[in-house]
Amino acid sequence: MKKVTLAVVIAMGAMLASCNSSEQQTATTEPQQEATETEAAAGGQSAVQDDESQKNVVQVAASSPDHTTLVTAVKTAELVDVLTNAGPFTVFAPTNAAFEQLPAGTVEGLLKPEKRSDLRNILQYHVYVGILNADSFEDGQSLGQVNGGRVTMGVKDGKVTVNGANIVASIPTSNGVIHVIDKVLLPQ
After folding, report:
1. Which domain holds residue 11?
2. Per-residue pLDDT reduced to its tens digit, 95-112
3. Backbone conformation region of residue 163, classed left if phi is above 0, alpha if psi is from -120 to 50, else beta
4. Closest residue by Cα to residue 182 from 66, 68, 69, 97
5. CA distance 129 to 88
6. Domain containing 96 — which CATH number?
């Protein structure tokens, strides 16, 4: 009987020691995990460094010398973190030349802090949630955009347009597709 009691006491002691050891490991790793999660949350998805994966829509646009105005607008509207998330997104991306077609002072006016909501509305009119490749569009197709507005696709003789703007290139990204367009889309 003494041998059984002694065996039970030893087994319980070993279990307690093992539990205590794992609690210390958990206590040591939890603050590290919390610190990492807090750092990532402070910067949002755009703060995540990844030089190996395919680039997302913001990274692709930022690397294009033809989209500096668009990237500035996305940053000013505070939409970078939204567009770096998983998506998927179809982005109709006007070139710098497209923005230059707007009346003088329009872009500068939209970049002012008091016009941020107008700028967001315009930029969100360029985004569809989901991936739509150029070959999937149909003439007359209507798409609901992020801002709640609708755009109309045109397909004629192999050329694709969105609200009359020509799609001049399409670029796949890690979280969707970018269709480069030659005009800025303005919500009605």
Report:
1. 2-43
2. 999 999 999 999 999 999
3. left
4. 97
5. 6
6. 2.30.180.10
